[in-house]
Write the structure tokens for this entry.
Amino acid sequence: MDSECRLAMMAPVSEIQSAVPAAERERRSRRWPRAVVALGTTPALVTAFVLTRPRDTELRLHFAGGRTLRYQIDLSVAGTTAVPGGSVSPYQAHAIETIAWTVESVDRAGVATVRLTIQDASLGVNAAPSPSAGRGASTEIRVAPDGRILSAGDPSLLWGGGTGAGVPGLDQIMPPLPRRPVRPGTSWASAFDQAFPLGRGAMRYSATSSFVRFQDVAGVRAAEIRSSMTVPVDVSLDFRAATVPGSSVSIVGNGPTIDYVGQAVVEQMAWLDPGGGTLVRSASTGTLAVTLTASGFPGLFPTFSPVPGSSLGRPFGAGAEEDAGGPPRDTLQLRGGFVLRIHRLP
């Protein structure tokens, strides 16, 4: 190594810096404040993101034994009733009921047995007042914390008539809820069986739901949940039981049954109080296409009608014919749409 190189390596740092052009030194010095600002800003941005992003919310029903809530149910049904190959009659019904929702017990899985009792009711059929089940009629349902109605009880409670007056498939009055906490924009799917305790069979619900947003409803910051549900109906109402389980209505008979076969399609908007774990309000619309086949009614219930106020030109069952030597049978087709509104009362 020659002497000039050794001298250059031994030169003071200040002399080396002075050899760098002034413009380059100024450009380098400007980088440091920007880098410091960037490093200081990054944690602040991360903190702001964490604090402002939507948080997951648990959407569950909360049950306490002995607790009673009151709801108003408003059901409108419009469509046709028909005898295959015979007359077709337009049908409109409007029922308004005040229901007491009382939690009787809660099992280890959190499933509640709830008694629904009519406190007040009015029923109009084809624009005319009609007798309804009235005050005091009740039935039991089983409800899971995720909103599934596992056992539906007596469908007549929604229709305002006596036992057997009504169509299964409209009983999922709660929204199907997710199994984990979610945030607005989250969707989920549900599939479950709903038992039919008044006879034979079960209804298989298929649903897709989404958490739309939070909305103030009746003074509550409620979670708005949208659900689309389809339920094939294939059940049989059996009147041979001396009493209907969970019902306040006693029925005596020796063989009458009604078979329900068809489908209900439901679109539901529901508002849930996440803090209180209760339904605040819901609005459902949908379609019904159900065939009812009655067996064994003429001698026992000559004026029975499974759809309150339906007019076929004769009592349902009165024109029944023998079916291969078996009990008399009669068939009624129900087609139409419905609107069901529910809201919690003070």
User: Anything to note?
Assistant: The CA atoms of residues 93 and 165 lie 12 Å apart. The radius of gyration is 33 Å.
